[in-house]
């Protein structure tokens, strides 16, 4: 179309506004990416720093902050193309940098996503959004970052920060990129027809399983911390949770790579499912424990958001309510009932119950999507034509694909997380020593979240003769000494 026949705001103006650039899609994708980024920074940074015991506030927030920053650098150096570049293996892309102007200003594309019929002819063309590659690189980065940060929730309150600083980038390269390429970037599960609309498997099932595996190898918190780990600031925790909830508009709304009908449906379904799950979880708390729990409501919100993610743009809104009901009761059951009866679940110290809120809810969402995906909505977004849920004529095959896809993600994340931690453990202890665990942030970082001494000066333990000793290995004795000396500062009990 000639530029003279369209409004000036929509005219191309090469080279900064090429013919293929859709300004609306580009704007929405950047906004969606920023919303997802805000879920992590500051959303999960704030949530982690406030939901833990006050002596772990700084350490927990810093683990999230570090993961966000380190992921971005590794992502643009090699990670993005390993997840969304040319095919190297059926489950992995070719590594390469996403740094040059020549690459980043061209139209975005996912080269391995071109899908063919059995006779070799093209069924669906390669995914090519109407914005530059730089937009897509940033958008996919925030998903990678939040996955690692969610994983961190399983090992808060005892993992050696130096071991975490090594683990985060290695897990991105050898675990996340494989799941992302297999299901999103044009890998074998993508072409086979496993449905994962926006990360129920790639992000939530992976982070939940890897977090649980990491918690097993790192070891538990101190007995005193496991028995009492009250949040240091519930109101601030709600602030972080609110950022997480509203940020999910970008999480699921950005998945179609365009400001289209699918994005609108996905955003509505996301919030409907989250609200339903929160109410169901709260209702169960009232029925069985006689009072509603704010922390429980946040858990219910989370499971609803996670459960809808594999099919947010592919199901009816009434189906989102159904998924919300399941999301509010099944993870509640595994956390409140099954957890107490399982020796394995009792043994593994999953600090924030990431296994229940993400692995269980993500798997549940993937299975329900295999049942409830609507043919018309699926045709708008999925690469394999004719994909639909079992209840809409998809047969048992779609459900089978969903289960096999989940088993691959589970198996690979157990293996890769274990291997990475084994290698790190050869050089650095995975768990802090008990002496540091007794103190917390001040021992790990030399900082405290809430410290008050004089006019803001820190208490200097070197000026006093009181020394913490653990000659008999008695944890309770160490705790009594710390209670007497004040653990290097007066903390404000919130």
Automatic annotation (TrEMBL):
Q: Which residues cross the membrane?
A: 27-49, 61-80, 136-156, 163-189, 201-219, 231-251, 257-281, 293-312, 318-339, 351-374, 403-428
Asked whether the UniProt record includes Transmembrane among its keywords, one would answer yes
Q: Does the keyword Transport apply?
A: yes
The Swiss-Prot or TrEMBL record annotates one GO molecular function as: ammonium channel activity
* UniProt membrane topology term: Multi-pass membrane protein
Q: Name one GO cellular component term.
A: plasma membrane
- Annotated InterPro entries: Ammonium/urea_transptr, Ammonium_transpt, Ammonium_transpt_CS, NH4_transpt_AmtB-like_dom, RhesusRHD
Give start and end of each Ammonium transporter AmtB-like domain: 27-450
Which terms are listed as keywords in the entry? Answer: Ammonia transport, Membrane, Transmembrane, Transmembrane helix, Transport
Q: Which residues form a coiled coil?
A: none
Question: Localized where?
Answer: Cell membrane; Membrane
Q: Which family does it belong to?
A: Belongs to the ammonia transporter channel (TC 1.A.11.2) family.
- State its role: Involved in ammonium transport.
Q: What is this protein called?
A: Ammonium transporter
Tell me the lineage of the source organism: Eukaryota, Viridiplantae, Streptophyta, Embryophyta, Tracheophyta
